[in-house]
Design a protein that fits this description.
Blueprint (H helix, E strand, L loop, with lengths): L1 E7 L9 H9 L8 E7 L2 E7 L12 E2 L5 E9 L2 H10 L10 H11 L9 E9 L4 E6 L8 E4 L5 E4 L2 H5 L10 H10 L12 E3 L4 E6 L8 E2 L13 H18 L7 E4 L4 H13 L5 E7 L7 H11 L2 E7 L7 H8 L8 H12 L4 E3 L4 H5 L3 H15 L2 H14 L13 H8 L2 H9 L4 H7 L2 H7 L5 H9 L6 H28 L3 E3 L5 H8 L3 H4 L7 H6 L6 H4 L10 H6 L3 H9 L1 H6 L4 H12 L6 H16 L4
Parallel strand pairs: 13-14, 13-16, 14-15, 16-17
Antiparallel strand pairs: 1-3, 1-9, 2-3, 4-5, 5-6, 6-7, 7-11, 8-9, 8-10, 11-12
Helix pairs in contact: 2-3, 6-7, 6-20, 7-8, 9-28, 10-19, 12-15, 12-19, 13-14, 14-15, 15-18, 15-19, 18-19, 25-27
């Protein structure tokens, strides 16, 4: 796992200062503390920071092909590199190293832009072809590894694994995109279709860009997509056997490393399944770690300990409490762009705990999106059934009217909190699911913004691109479309961003076997009843894993990595909540109505409403703006 950075000039091939590229890489030294390098030629420069995982001494980067025609800076892991190496060698390719980087170079020389279709793994890389005078930027299928691209004031392009690499370039403009603020307030992160700074964009997952010195800027090209339009046929036993085979294949391929390896273990279905298959494939005890909370209702370490005992793992656990929020500035600095998923804090801590003993850790991320494991998937499937039964005018007028009148009663038991459900049913399937995924709904954002910001935002709403993703999905049902949007929107923007930044902050490589693209494609083809049955999501996965895991692990209510930020902002962090309302830094931007924020904070502290996530969003926005030098 590494960091890459570089500069590319259009038109006249201006010289690229190696020291400038080196400074961009050094801003991301945490991603690659084991070494670095820079390569430049007229009009182009590539830089690299390395975290050594495979071929520890033999694969320095940037790396040139044997004939020195192509040069690459690569971040990630190619899990099928040995099979590809044999295939390419049989076709005449020569190799000087034992790692996966040189395999990408050989694949480029044989297949060109189609080389990415042969790569199984997580990656973001920049490859310069000296003969064709092209720069090839590519990102893996699901977006496990990031790649930021900036348009600089001199007309050139810069790229980096993190925004902080681009911030090290003196020509980067730091103007905030107001539509990114709207996106952030809706979702709690800035989705991949937008950069927080106007001059910066992200290469989308499953896309590449081919840049030429003497041509206009090329748009991203999609090279992979997942389809929910087909349905796999077969008996449940046969589908279960195929799922288990794909999971075993995914786990064992990600256990290849020349450094110590372990796993995150939360005690949930997904991480427990990964650990079970690791234990099955390993001669030695698997190193596992977990993090709990100082709020008993949200602490799952006892389940993690139970699974660790079942498989005889070498287990370690820790606890996160409200005092950890003294590190809020460090947390904000990891992400550069504002990021309000409060589970980033315990994720960072579990990564740090893992890094004490290992350099690579496997996680259970991806199964919820692929196999319908979120509670919202079950609700959405039920709501879609109601939408099909009730005509849209009735839903809009009657249910929408009731939803508008129904109080936001956060203190009531969950079954009685009907406001969100009524508003969701009144909307389209796409609009209802966007409401389920979002953090701050449109009507609340409308109250929060100042008149000046509303004018800047114009007619745009953050839900628009999400709903468009659902409408355009290759899918059959509403659940299909919801899962597709999760894989395209939520997964790279929130989950994978969180794991990448927090793991890389402590120089730990995180691998996600349940995001193997063959497993994702198989899951997308499953009949809906193999994903959701009754009140159970991930049906086929749970049935498959009953041979390894007890029912009280498989079928207990899903908890998730829920951080008790709302309780903390009423208790030990109430001062932080009041500081957000009184903060002059956010107020000076003129984006928000200060009185509305103050009321939200007072109502939250008094227990009248639950605005914990919104207050946390505003707090992280404030810290991010400070780190970026905007305020």
């Amino acid at each position: 796992m590494c960091a890459i950075a570089g500069i590319f000039h259009y038109g006249t091939p201006k010289p690229v200062e190696a020291a400038r590229v080196e400074r961009m890489c050094d801003a991301m030294v945490h991603r690659g503390p084991d070494g670095g390098g820079v390569w430049t030629a007229p009009g182009v420069g590539l830089g690299h920071r390395r975290l050594s995982i495979i071929d520890l001494a033999g694969s320095p980067q940037p790396m040139a092909s044997v004939d020195e025609r192509a040069i690459i800076a690569f971040n990630g892991e190619i899990y099928n590199f040995r099979e590809l190496r044999r295939e390419l060698a049989q076709a005449g390719a020569q190799f000087r190293t034992d790692g996966d980087t040189e395999v990408i170079l050989a694949a480029w020389q044989r297949w060109g832009v189609d080389c990415v279709k042969h790569l199984h793994g997580m990656f973001a890389f920049a490859l310069y072809d000296r003969a064709a005078r092209t720069l090839f930027l590519a990102r893996d299928r699901l977006g496990v590894k990031p790649l930021y691209v900036a348009h600089l004031s001199d007309g050139s392009i810069a790229f980096a694994s993190e925004l902080k690499g681009l911030l090290a370039h003196p020509l980067l403009r730091r103007d905030v995109d107001p539509l990114a603020v709207e996106d952030y307030l809706a979702w709690g992160y800035v989705p991949d279709h937008r950069g927080f700074l106007k001059a910066v964009e992200k290469l989308p997952a499953g896309h590449y860009r081919l840049l030429h010195h003497d041509r206009a800027l090329a748009s991203p090209v999609q090279w992979w997509d997942v389809s929910f339009a087909e349905r796999r046929k077969g008996r449940e036993a046969d589908l279960s056997a195929e799922l288990l085979h794909l999971m075993r294949q995914a786990v064992t391929s990600r256990m290849v490393a020349d450094v110590p390896l372990g796993a995150f273990l939360s005690g949930g279905v997904d991480s427990s399944s990964v650990v079970a298959l690791m234990a099955e494939a390993s001669h030695d005890p698997v190193r596992t770690c977990s993090i709990g909370f100082d709020v008993a209702a949200l602490d799952e370490t006892s389940y993690a300990a139970k699974v660790a005992g079942l498989f005889g793992t070498d287990h370690q656990s820790g606890t996160v409490g409200s005092e950890e929020f003294r590190e809020i500035d460090r947390l904000a600095a990891m992400f550069d762009e504002p990021f309000a998923d409060a589970s980033a804090l315990p994720t960072w801590r579990v990564c740090a705990l893992a890094r004490e003993r290992v350099t690579v850790a496997l996680s259970g991320d991806g199964a919820d999106e692929a196999l319908a494991g979120y509670r919202r998937h079950i609700f959405h499937a039920r709501e879609e059934a109601v939408r099909h039964m009730l005509p849209a005018p009735f839903r809009n007028r009657v249910l929408g009217g009731l939803g508008a009148l129904y109080p936001k009663a956060d203190w009531l038991p969950r079954p009685l909190r009907a406001k969100t459900t009524l508003l969701s049913l009144a909307d389209s399937g796409e609009g209802g699911y966007a409401r389920a995924v979002g953090i701050t709904p449109p009507e609340l954002r409308q109250r929060l913004y100042s008149p000046d910001f509303l004018a800047l935002r114009g007619d745009y709403r953050a839900e628009m691109p999400f709903e468009a993703t659902m409408r355009q999905a290759p899918a059959r049902t509403g659940l299909d479309r919801a899962q597709y949007a999760d894989l395209k929107f939520w997964l790279p923007g929130d989950i994978l961003t969180k794991v990448d930044r927090t793991s890389m902050a402590v120089s730990l490589e995180a691998r996600e076997p349940l995001l193997d693209h063959r497993l994702i494609e198989f899951a997308a083809s499953l009949p809906q009843r193999m994903r959701i049955r009754g009140r159970q999501g991930k049906w086929l996965l749970k049935q498959t894993m009953r041979r390894y895991l007890p029912d009280d692990i498989l079928f207990r209510p899903k908890q998730g990595f829920v951080t008790p930020v709302s309780a903390w902002l009423r208790g030990p962090l109430a001062g932080q909540a009041r500081a957000i309302a009184a903060g002059a830094s956010l107020n000076q931007l003129g984006w928000f109505d200060a009185r509305t924020i103050a009321k939200f904070a007072d109502d939250h502290i008094a227990g009248k409403s639950d605005h914990g996530r919104l207050l946390w969003q505003l707090l992280m926005l404030d810290r991010s703006l400070r780190n970026l030098g905007v305020i």
